[in-house]
Amino acid sequence: MYSVKLLFCIVGVINAAASAMQFNCSTARMKACEITNIIITEYTDVSEWEFPDHSDISFGSYPLPDESTIITEITKEVSEKLTNAQNVQMQNVSLMSFFLWEHLISLDASYNYLSELIVDPTAMYNLKSLVLKHNRLQNIDFLKGLFKLRDLDLSNNYLEKIDLSILDPAKDLATLNLSNNRIRTITTTIGDMLHLPWLTVLMLNNNQLTILDASRWQFNVLQDFFLSNNRLSYISMCEIQNSFPRLQSLYLDGNNWECPNLNSTIAQLHESGVKLVNYSSHNCTEAIENICCS
Question: 223 by DSSP, 3-state: which?
C-alpha cells in the first residue's frame, strides 16, 4: 500500500509577542517539520499564530507518547495558516474534526477520535492519500469531492453501511481499506455500473457482511480481495469473474460458508487461476482447503 514516509525535525517555539506565537523548524536539512508541545481546541485563538512555510508537517510524535501535543480540531482558521503544507501527519493527538484544504496531497490522521472530515463542496482538492484508520467515522459522505484519491484507508472505524457509488469519480483509486468496521451492507445506488479502473487492492475483511452484491462493480485490475471474517455463506462466482477479471488472490476464511457452495466456489476459483489465501487459522470440525464450513 502506498504511504508517505516522512523524516522529522523538531520545531522550536518562539514567542514573537505577548499574544503571538511562531513555529520554526530547527533543521532545514530534514524533510519534514515536526511540531510538538502545542494545544489547539475549538476555543484556541490562533489569529496571531504562524506555522512554518513547509510542505511536510507532522504534529505530535506518534507512536511515542506525547502528552504535550493535543489538537482536538483543525478549524478553517487553522487550515488557512497551513495552506502550504502538502503532506501532514497528525496521529494520536485527540483529533475530532478536521477542515480540509485544497493543496493537501496526503493526510494521515490515524489513532484519533475523528468523527468528521469537513470539505468545501466548491473546492478543487488535490488529496491523493488519505489514512484515517482507528477513528470514529460513521459515514463517508466527505469523500464526494475527493476525486484524485489513490489510496484510502478507513479501517477500524464505526462504519455500518457503505454506498460505494460515492467513489465513482475517484478513477485513480488504487487501494481501498474498509476492514475492521461494522459494515453490514454495501450498496451501489448511482448509475448502472461502478467503474474503478485502477483499483488493485480491496479490503472488506473483519466486518459483518452477510451478502456481497458485486453485480454492478467493474474493477478490471483488482488483484487482491479480502473478505475474511464476515458472515458470508455464499458468493456468486459469475459476479466474481465478471467484476474482477484479473483477480489473483481471494481471502474467504472466517465466514459462514455452506460446504456444498464453498466446494463449488473453490473449484471454479481454481479453474480461473485465483489463489485462495487464509487470513488466519480457525478451529472447526469441517473444512475445505482450510476454510471452515458447515
Answer: coil
pTM reported for the whole predicted model: 0.90
pLDDT tops 90 at residue 5: no
Backbone phi, then psi, for 78, in 5-degree steps? -70, -45
Spatial distance between the Cα atoms of 89 and 25, rounded to a whole number of angstroms: 15
Nearest alpha carbon to residue 169 among 138, 202, 147: 147
Which triple of cell numbers denotes residue 239?
459476479
Tell me if 215 sits within 8 A of 239, measured CB to CB: yes
Q: Is 261 helix (H, G, I), strand (E, B) or coil?
A: helix
Closest alpha carbon to 112 in 70, 84, 141: 70
Summarised one tens digit per residue, pLDDT across range 150-188 is 999 999 999 999 999 999 999 999 999 999 999 999 999
How far is the C-alpha of 197 from the C-alpha of 125, rounded, in Å? 20
- CA dist list (Å): 294 to 237, 258, 291: 19, 5, 10
